[in-house]
Amino acid sequence: MVRKVVIVGAGPSGVLLAHYLLRRGEHYKIDIYERRSDPRIVEFSKSRTFPLTLGERGLNALRQIEGLEEAVKAISVPIRGAMSHLKNGKTQLRPRQKPLFALDRTNLATALLEKLTEKYDSRRLNVHFNAKCTQVDFAANTVSFQKVTEAASEDVAIELSVEYDFLIGADGARSVVRENFLGTEGFECAQRYVSSDYKSLFLPQPDTRLGMELKSGYIHGWRRNDGMVVLLLHQLDGAMSGVIHFPRDENQIVGLSTKQEVLEFFHKNFPEVGKLMPEAEAEAFLKRPISMVLTVRCNRYHHGDRVLLIGDAAHAVSPAIGQGCNAALEDVVVLDNLLDEYSDDWAKAIEQFTIRRQPDAHALTELSDNAFPSSTNLFIEFMLREALAKLMHKVFPKHFLPSLFQLISETTVPYSEILNLHQGWIAKVKKSNEKSLTNTV
Fold first, then answer.
1. CB of 333 within 8 A of CB of 16?
2. pTM, rounded to two decimals
3. How large is the C-alpha radius of gyration of the chain?
4. DSSP secondary structure letter of residue 104
């Protein structure tokens, strides 16, 4: 019997899940619906994309499908460490044993989509763009979309009602599928915005004549005592992209009104970034909307025996430790293993997905919020802890664990286990962060 699976969201986790399900055999037919345009033919606005890094969790998920890991690495920049730029002009280098792979989120989704459509034709796979999910009817097993098509040189919205055997909400932190869970018995979901907002940055290839040490293959970071942070990394073409994070309250970004003010702001607060920023980017930066990060924590990820949330729709977290996409891709592996374990019995598999994945998702929230300290003093302690742990593990691997961040990004050790191993540090940072937040209110 053919099983029709409707996936809402053509981001990395949704497209990867299609790969996994279609690999399971001819009895799966997949329809993917995405509210945005096809990224293969329409360039996304830079304000709606951002760089991300894939560690062992994400790479392991890609590795299970032939050709995906290689295709993604081919458009990625290996990141071999992080370089902190200090106020006195000096730098602190934190090398990695295993590289991360950095690329743009849109490019990742596009690469996965291209491989998917190369392998499967419309008999088993259909991808629908410009189709916004509007409602789910759990009783009728239907999901509604508003699809925008071009007719007679103008856009026309068409209402669609689609039947499903199984429905996957992979539609991000502001998931419409999850929103429909709110009307179901016993469902609880906590949503909150992290205390800092961000804007994307896109800078040209650094001019060597500027005399700045901005080596390719490293995440470059600048921190201010007031909580502002700039993170930049190189792209394949040598240009740099990244973000500036800043406190939501009393931040200077919101008051910038001209490109000259933007340039002056960066020259004053982040001189090296200011030297790299051309007037065109200052103008573009001014026009980009300020983005807020929404975190999500649910008491279950499934409804009945046919509907499941994955990725940010289920457990969106702060980007502080770069695990959102990695965790979303890992969700696909977890679900695939459960379908193996329960012989494609979806009712059992999706119920177990909530039971088994929730401890790791909740642990990831704690790690994302509290692994990286905002306090300058604790940041110094963090650097020392990481360096000592790496050294001791390298010299005595049987007696000392890898560092906290090595466990997070270079292994597939469950997040819940990592939290248990480093509970003391997490509690210390959490207390410090809560104290800092109280003092600013």
1. no
2. 0.93
3. 22
4. E
